[in-house]
Amino acid sequence: MAGLSFDNYQRNAFLASQSHNTPKATSTGTTIVGVKFNNGVIIAADTRSTQGPIVADKNCAKLHRMAPRIWCAGAGTAADTEAVTQLVGSNLELHSLYTHREPRVVSALQMLKQHLFKYQGHIGAYLIVAGVDPTGPHLFAVQAHGSTDVGFYHSLGSGSLAAMAVLETNWKQDLTKEEAMKLASDAIQAGIWNDLGSGSNVDLCVMEVGKDAEYLRNYITPNVREPKQQSYKFKRGTTAVLREVEIEVYQEQEIDISA
Amino acid sequence: MNGIQVDINHLKKGEVSLGTSIMAVTFKDGVILGADSRTTMGSYIANRVTDKLTRVHDKIWCCRSGSAADTQAVADIVQYHLEVYTSQYGIPSTRTAASVFQSLCYENKDFLSAGIIVAGFDDKSEKGEVYSIPLGGSIHKQPYAIAGSGSAFIYGYCDKNYKPDMTKDETVEFMKHSLSQAIKWDGSSGGVIRLVVLTKSGVERLIFYPEDYENL
Amino acid sequence: MTSIGTGYDLSNSVFSPDGRNFQVEYAVKAVENGATSVGIKCDDGVVFAVEKIISSKLLVPKRNVKIQTIDRHIGCVYSGLIPDGRYLVNRGREEASNFKKLYTKPIPVSALADRISQYVQAYTLYNSVRPFGISAIIGGIDEDGSHLYMVEPSGTCWGYKGAATGKGRQAAKAELEKLFDRSTDGLSVKDAIKEAARVIYIAHEDNKEKDFELEISWCSATETNGLHKFVPENLLEEAIEYAKEQLEGYEEGDSDDEAASSDEEPATGDADGDVAME
Q1: B58, part of any domain
Q2: DSSP assignment string, B50-89
Q3: Fold exhibited by the domain A26-220
């Protein structure tokens, strides 16, 4: 039969739980948040990508565009968040072309949760979905198993506890856009500074009713590398020449590469 | 499975669960559904204002407990079924809705952890009905039903204090007291108390904050 | 009625240039030669009756049952190719069972008739199948009262107060129309049994040389507790007696018409006369 087979999943998980050397799951540390404000919604993310204890990328992008005005912040397995977000984004565009309507956030949400539920958590995507559509601004959180939550603010990823602490203390009803941007970036910074899995910069995306989405890549860069005090370039001639060999050119041919 | 017995619910850990206190009570004018609002991921509260009362038809709602993903998926499918049913045969009965829930829960019992209470108001008979569908997919028609981890603490209270044909205010008070105790003694329950009242006059949502229910 | 198919009649799913499906029309022919069936809808129930031509003296009386029950509350009678009808009823039973399994409530008659007609219609679309050679009268009781439908080989499904199909349908329909004109304030199922018997006896007049047995069933909120059942022996006898009684009067009054109508369907066995039945 075509498709992925999970026949041995439970057996393997059971055997793994019995033995001492359990294979480690690739869980990528992240902090992502979403905050609603009086006329729209904001999502934000840090930019650290990790592979175990190594920082794989100091400035990666965790904010994904699913439609011009529906964006998604992803935590969990990086490959999965990227793939699922692109798949749903693509289907959303086809659906929008077919119906001659702007895509809706609830459509994106339903497509995501049905896809993730089908894979029973094996697609490790934890997402904060946000956007504006003809019915107004929306903010949702989706878990890998396919459950969804509605709320005025959300945080996800390894830094979600740090971020939630900030959100819970500073959030209030009817935030302005500027207040919401400050709150979201503060929450991400709480992750950047206090969570080992998160770090580097803050990416932000503002979706306001009646306006184009504003993607603010590296909205805050609190970890700029100091310029080096000295140049570490080696001077010409640093390497000593020990031996020289002269090779005669056997044949020469001109090739026209203009075409 | 290769002769190895595996506890499915144990292996599925790590997913979001509704360690919950839910209930639904019939009364004189209809039926009321109630729930706490806590969603947990292990020891972390993933959502403290969850809405576990879900609409599957205008006047047929359900209380969800167990896995959030599973119960949401099941409720979505039932909602779809009832929408099709309505366009083909007219308004479904609560019994019919509960029956669709049951077939999904029973036929997929090996893959689901869902404990659901279905409650609805029938405009024709002007009566409220409650059906409880616990883990295995059996179905039980009851005057009132309680479920979820918190329900263990209030069996006695509910049994002593439930009366048939209460007024709306009496029922709301009964449910507030019951869920308050469930939340108090169950660590996996908490947040606010949400109620949905289904009567002839329509659907009404009520919310009670900790300061409203903690010191009754 | 049917013109020569000129090649357009060999396959299902092919229209003739003037927009006809000959295979369906041939199926209707099979129905037109079948034994007469009628259904009557009353306020509190429905009645089915069918003429059973005794094609052999060796057949055991009362042991060859034609009317079938699809679900406890729904009955069905049909004219045409009997095995096609049995197959369709089986399908109807599946539909009824699926509905009850999912929704824990008996299938509404309208829903069942609709599902069956959709199934019948599908058999006019594909090359590998032929249409059903029957017209089925489906009726019963549900929460909205009594219902009667007739499904034809094309998949058409209409709701009726009185339905008739098979060889004697013209006479039967005329009688049913007269019946509903007369009793405008509604008929009881008990009366309908007698009338159904009478209609079958009248419809049999054109086919007098063959003996027949009468079968009647009913489904009523008041008489059968909403279940589809065969009528008790005494009521059947009573109905047959009434029918015969009425027939004598009918024969005296309409003796002129009889000669005229015998032109329409010649008694001398024509080529396609015996294709369909028994």
Answers
A1: yes
A2: ---EEEEETTEEEEEEEEHHHHHHHHHHHHHHHHHHHHHH
A3: Glutamine Phosphoribosylpyrophosphate, subunit 1, domain 1 (3.60.20)
Chain C residue whose CA is closest to B106: C102
Domain count, chain B: 1
Choices 3.60.20.10, 3.30.390.50, 3.40.50.1360, 3.40.50.2300: CATH for C30-250 = 3.60.20.10
Q: Chain B contact for A121, CB < 8 A?
A: yes
- What is the model's pLDDT at position A5? 82
Report chain B residues whose CB lies below 8 A from the CB of A121.
12, 14-15, 69
Alpha-carbon gap, residue C231 to C216, rounded angstroms = 6
> Which structural domain, as residue segments, surrounds residue B93?
35-212
User: In chain C, what are the domain boundaries?
Assistant: 30-250
Contacts of B77 (CB under 8 A, 6+ apart): B104
Residues of chain A found within 8 Å of residue B8, distances taken between Cβ atoms:
10
The answer to the question of residue B73 being in a domain is yes
What pLDDT, in 10s, does the model give residues A85-123? 999 999 999 999 999 999 999 999 999 999 999 999 999
Model ipTM value: 0.89
- Contact present, A and B (at least 3 Cβ pairs less than 8 Å): yes
Task: Express as a percent the part of chain A with pLDDT over 90.
Answer: 77
Is pLDDT of C5 > 90?
no
Contact C103 B88 (CB under 8 A): no
Asked whether C132 and C153 are in contact (CB, 8 A), the reply is yes
Check which CATH number belongs to the domain holding B197 and give it: 3.60.20.10
User: What type of residue is B42?
Assistant: G
Instruction: Read off φ and ψ for residue A200, nearest 5 degrees.
Output: 65, -120
Asked whether the CA dihedral B109, B111, B117, B122 is positive or negative, the reply is negative
- In angstroms, how far is CA C96 from the centroid of its own chain? 20
Each residue's pLDDT, cut to its tens digit, for chain A (259 residues) gives: 577 888 888 888 888 788 766 555 455 789 999 999 999 999 999 999 998 888 989 999 999 999 999 999 999 999 999 999 999 999 999 999 999 999 999 999 999 999 999 999 999 999 999 999 999 999 999 999 999 999 999 999 999 999 999 999 999 999 999 999 999 999 999 999 999 999 999 999 999 999 999 999 999 999 999 998 888 888 988 999 999 999 998 888 888 888 6
What are the b/e assignments for C131-169, b being 16+ CB within 10 Å?
bbbbbbbbbbbbeeebbbbbbbbbbebeebebbbbbbbb
Within C51-132, residue ranges assigned H as helices are 82-103, 109-122
Residue in chain C closest to B97 (alpha carbons) equals C103
CB distance A149–B44 less than 8 Å? Answer: no
| pTM greater than the 0.90 cutoff | no
pLDDT tens digits for range C211-240: 999 999 999 999 999 999 999 999 999 999
- Burial group, residue B7, by CB count within 10 angstroms (0-12, 13-18, 19+): exposed
- A22 at interface of B, judged by CB pairs closer than 8 A: no
Asked if the structure places residue B155 within a domain, the reply is yes
- Is A150 in CB contact (< 8 Å) with chain B? yes
C19-53 per-position pLDDT tens digit: 999 999 999 999 999 999 999 999 999 999 999 99
